[in-house]
Structures are given as structure tokens and as C-alpha cells.
TrEMBL record:
<feature type="transmembrane region" description="Helical">
    <location>
        <begin position="323"/>
        <end position="345"/>
    </location>
</feature>
<dbReference type="InterPro" id="IPR023827">
    <property type="entry name" value="Peptidase_S8_Asp-AS"/>
</dbReference>
<dbReference type="InterPro" id="IPR036852">
    <property type="entry name" value="Peptidase_S8/S53_dom_sf"/>
</dbReference>
<keyword id="KW-0378">Hydrolase</keyword>
<feature type="active site" description="Charge relay system">
    <location>
        <position position="21"/>
    </location>
</feature>
<keyword id="KW-1133">Transmembrane helix</keyword>
<feature type="region of interest" description="Disordered">
    <location>
        <begin position="27"/>
        <end position="56"/>
    </location>
</feature>
<feature type="region of interest" description="Disordered">
    <location>
        <begin position="78"/>
        <end position="104"/>
    </location>
</feature>
<dbReference type="Pfam" id="PF00082">
    <property type="entry name" value="Peptidase_S8"/>
</dbReference>
<dbReference type="GO" id="GO:0004252">
    <property type="term" value="F:serine-type endopeptidase activity"/>
</dbReference>
<protein>
    <submittedName>
        <fullName>S8 family serine peptidase</fullName>
    </submittedName>
</protein>
<feature type="compositionally biased region" description="Basic and acidic residues">
    <location>
        <begin position="27"/>
        <end position="39"/>
    </location>
</feature>
<dbReference type="GO" id="GO:0006508">
    <property type="term" value="P:proteolysis"/>
</dbReference>
<feature type="region of interest" description="Disordered">
    <location>
        <begin position="354"/>
        <end position="408"/>
    </location>
</feature>
<keyword id="KW-0645">Protease</keyword>
<dbReference type="InterPro" id="IPR015500">
    <property type="entry name" value="Peptidase_S8_subtilisin-rel"/>
</dbReference>
<feature type="active site" description="Charge relay system">
    <location>
        <position position="226"/>
    </location>
</feature>
């Protein structure tokens, strides 16, 4: 992501990144002095519980690893798996209920916008009760964008065909104007778990990310599109800090236009490719700030919502982007292949999701409601080596501000 080179011109000074998640532990060394917590939009008082803030703390640390001079505003909108009130998507479906307060997410987006957030990071969605369009949430996001707030969301962790995952449409990633972030492996290709959709905008590293461990003062390796989103939010903070007058559409423009395969066009797997912080900052320097453009209006962006690249909103697993390029000589064959793939996708929705009892690492995406996955027990051949486990309660040194990547 060329973060060290980017730090020569920006470290995120003066920018607030709102992390809407499971809450954050502001006393963790990776966050201390650079984070504060706002209201709990689940309307509970769980900050003293031992399980509080697992996922949110990890995501906040990843934001600050990229933008060490930024500030984080933590807002709780979802639950951690160790929360006694946590429910899996299957449990929600079986009970006909709602796992978390969807209204609370809309409120939190509006709160963040009205309380100084410049960037909103949403490492949530993936296979949850939020897999359908919600007008209130869409309006809250539109409000944030109209105020110049950059909004990013995790694409989702349901792209692994070998585990029978359903590749569901995931909100808030699918809302127009949201920068949707896929997860990549070293080398830049799609991480096996990362969902495949036409609304993928960019990708960021999503495997073996060294993030804050809420159980100790140290760190732990994590993976998922959640982590990719948090890292991309940090890069966005670098851009907004240096060029505060750029509206969200232009921030998206420089992220996409300088990503790893932007010159080759859009991919349903990784969007325009892995982001490059240094190149994005250089591209931003050449832009004249525009006025914010209302979502849905002409000129709102080349890729500012699902389906505008000509691909279906839902696709089958593992399809390479070239399958969607239908040549004149093979138009009928290509069309039948797409229709057949969609039929298979719908049929595949009947498959039971893999959970811990099925040998999976913990639900359809590890943490199925928001994108982070625990590191699998078997090493993925594309992953970096995971260091030997440390005592989780042994204090570990925290990386100096500006050091990249964060050390163990």
C-alpha cells in the first residue's frame, strides 16, 4: 500500500475517523491518547465487560497504524461474538428477530457526521440481518456524503465456494456512494473468503493483519474484509488530511484511479485493485476540488454503486472478471453462462453455512456479522507466515507512531 512513502506528506493530522463497530478500548496502547468513545447505539452499558470491544479495538488500531496522527471516534453498533446477547444470522432467521438495532446504525452514521468525523469506517455487514436495503441507512449515508464525509465499508466474507458460502449482497457496502473494500492476499489477488460483487471498488490487504488484541496490551494476527476496510479508511484519512477540500467522490476517484489494476479496468473480485497510498496522494494533488454531488445524479461517479460496470449485482463464486466480457461471437454462450451461474447461486442459498461444529473457524465468515475472520489453523499458501503464539497476557511493545507495518 506504499504507506511509509505516503507518510512523507501526510500522517492523518487533524482528521477524525469514526469506527462504527463493537466499541473500542481506548486504554489499549495502540489507541491510547488517539481515540475516544461516543454513545453506545445498542443502548447498553457493557464497557466493563471482559469481552467488550474485541473487533472494534482491532479495527481502530489498523486505522491508526496507517494514519498515526489521526483520531478515532468509536461508536458501538454491533456485538462481539463473546457478548451473551450475540446471535448468529441463522439464529436470527430461526427466531424471526433482529440481532442488532438496524436503526442504531443509521443514528450512529448521523451522529458521527454531526460530531466531526471526516471518514466513517464500517467493518460490518457480511451475511447479517443487514443483507437487505434499508432506506433509513441509505439516507444516513447520503447525509454523511453530502457533508463531505468519506464512507467505507467491508465488502463481505462470503466468497469461499469450498465452504458453501452464499456470496450474499452485503449492506452497507452495497449502498451508492460507499467505497466498498475487498480483501487481498500478498501479490494483490482476491483473498479466498472475500465476496465477489459488481460494487467492489478497491482492495486492501486482508490476511495476517497485526491488530490490537483487546485481551492484552499486545497484538494478534487477524484477517477479513473488515481489516481491509480499516486499512483503507486509514489511507482515506491521509488523503483528507492533506487535501481536506476534496469531496468523497474525488477521494474515491484517486483511490480507484491509482489502485493496482486501474489501467486494466474494474474487477468484480477486487474492484480497481489494491490501493496505493503514496500514488493516491500524488493524484489528489492534481485535482481541483468539486462540490459534493448528490447520489444518483449525473456525474456521481464512474463506479459509485452496484451494477454500473455492467455486471449482475449477485454473481457466482470464483468467476474471473473476463467471464463477464461477452464477445460478439460468443454472446449467446456468455449470456447462458451468466444466467446459469445466477440459478446456481440461488440454489446455493439453501446450503447450510459452515460453523465451528462443521470445521469452519466460526460461522460463515468467522465473525459473520462484520467481516473479520480469525486466522485459520491451516496455513493458506498465499498468507505470510504467522509468528509463534505469544502469551496473550504478556505485555508487548507498541509500535512507535509512524512505523509500518506494525510490529509484533
Amino acid at each position: 500500500m506504499s504507506v511509509p512513502a505516503a507518510h512523507a506528506s501526510s500522517e492523518g493530522e487533524g482528521v477524525t475517523v469514526a469506527v462504527l463497530d463493537t466499541g473500542i478500548r481506548t486504554d489499549h496502547p495502540a489507541l491510547k491518547g488517539r481515540a475516544k468513545e461516543g454513545p453506545d447505539f445498542l443502548q447498553e452499558d457493557d464497557q466493563s465487560e471482559s469481552w467488550y470491544g474485541d473487533h472494534g479495538t482491532s479495527m481502530a488500531s489498523s486505522v491508526l497504524d496507517v494514519a498515526p496522527e489521526a483520531k478515532v471516534l468509536g461508536l458501538r453498533v454491533i456485538r462481539d461474538p463473546d457478548d451473551p446477547d450475540y446471535q448468529t444470522p441463522d439464529e436470527v432467521t430461526g427466531q424471526g428477530g433482529s440481532r442488532d438495532n438496524s436503526h442504531g446504525l443509521s443514528q450512529a452514521i448521523t451522529y458521527a457526521t454531526d460530531h466531526g468525523a471526516d471518514v466513517i469506517s464500517l467493518s460490518l455487514g457480511s451475511g447479517s440481518v443487514w443483507d437487505t436495503y434499508d432506506e433509513e441507512q441509505a439516507k444516513a449515508i447520503e447525509y454523511a456524503l453530502s457533508k463531505g464525509v468519506v464512507v467505507l465499508a467491508a465488502l463481505g466474507n462470503e466468497g469461499n465456494v469450498e465452504r458453501g458460502e452464499e456470496n450474499q449482497v452485503s449492506y452497507p457496502a452495497a449502498y451508492p456512494g460507499v467505497i466498498s473494500v475487498a480483501a487481498s492476499v500478498p501479490g494483490g489477488s482476491r483473498a479466498p473468503f472475500s465476496s465477489v460483487h459488481s460494487y467492489a471498488d478497491i482492495a486492501a490487504p486482508g490476511v495476517v493483519i497485526n491488530a490490537a488484541d483487546y485481551r492484552s496490551s499486545g497484538r494478534k494476527p487477524v484477517q477479513g474484509t473488515s481489516s481491509a476496510c480499516a486499512l483503507a479508511a486509514g489511507v482515506s484519512a491521509l488523503i483528507v488530511s492533506k487535501y481536506p477540500d476534496l469531496p468523497p467522490r474525488q477521494v474515491a476517484q484517486v483511490l480507484e484511479g491509482t489502485a493496482s489494476h486501474a489501467s486494466r479496468g474494474h474487477s468484480v473480485e477486487t474492484g480497481y485493485g489494491v490501493i496505493n497510498a503514496h500514488a493516491a496522494l500524488r493524484a489528489a494533488a492534481k485535482l481541483t476540488p468539486e462540490k459534493p454531488v448528490a447520489i444518483g445524479k449525473a456525474g456521481a461517479g464512474v463506479h459509485f454503486g452496484p451494477g454500473d460496470d455492467g455486471t449482475p449485482q449477485m454473481v457466482t463464486y470464483g468467476l474471473d472478471p473476463e467471464y463477464f466480457a461477452i464477445a460478439a461471437g460468443g454472446a449467446l454462450t456468455g449470456l447462458l453462462a451468466i444466467l446459469g451461474g445466477l440459478w446456481l447461486f440461488r440454489s446455493g442459498r439453501r446450503l447450510q453455512r459452515l460453523g465451528p461444529s462443521d470445521g469452519g473457524p466460526g460461522g460463515s465468515a468467522g465473525y459473520p456479522q462484520y467481516g473479520q475472520q480469525p486466522v485459520p489453523l491451516q496455513q493458506n499458501p498465499y498468507q505470510q507466515a504467522v509468528p509463534p503464539p505469544r502469551n496473550p497476557y504478556q505485555q508487548q511493545p507498541t509500535s512507535p507512531h509512524g512505523q509500518w507495518p506494525p510490529q509484533q
